[in-house]
């Protein structure tokens, strides 16, 4: 109903068009309208809506970057496959057997952060929790500085800022980075673990009812209107904790095995 008014539709068009000009490396990609829409609906001023969208895209633009025949979100799909293999190897094996090892059925969830799976209000509620869990007090300087900083400067920041100032998810990543070999761990966005929690929640149904990828898509589409954002975030944190434990073992055990093998 909001976009039945031509002036609202014009705002969406304007912001996406300006962004395509502003970020020539990424341009426009399908799904950006889902991410931009809440900014327009919540912020009356078009300029404010644009800059909020631009800051959001700094977090997500890598998903839309196309190189050759691939799109950036495929990296997260690969990460999702690895996480699922750790937390539910039986389900991962079943999905691979069905030809879904690439996890393309989760493409939309990662690209638009569950905007199509949840109502407008519920998706914003989920976003609030995601960004609170991922909160980093250095976000502003990271945005203004551009790319991710190296592990040495991360360590300096960790000493300078009290660890409790970080969101719960980010705290776990920071503590884990301090324990393992520098550079051996690349933190994943919480969205990967949110999708993993959805798969885990639907695991029984996927294992017993899915006989092909169409069935997988149908079962996952059933989450629309039935997804509890708070429960999903809680489960995602549990999966994240399990995944970090596995990373820690891998970091310490692999060098030992290589050393003994040689």
TrEMBL record:
Task: Name the domain of life this protein comes from.
Answer: Eukaryota
GO MF assignments = GTPase activator activity
Sorted alphabetically, which InterPro entries does this protein's record hold?
A: Rab-GAP-TBC_dom, Rab-GAP_TBC_sf
Q: Where is the Rab-GAP TBC domain?
A: 1-134
**Matches recorded under SMART domains:** TBC (SM00164)
Q: Which Pfam families match?
A: RabGAP-TBC (PF00566)
PANTHER family per record: RAB-GTPASE-TBC DOMAIN-CONTAINING PROTEIN-RELATED, TBC1 DOMAIN FAMILY MEMBER GTPASE-ACTIVATING PROTEIN
Official protein name in the record: Rab-GAP TBC domain-containing protein
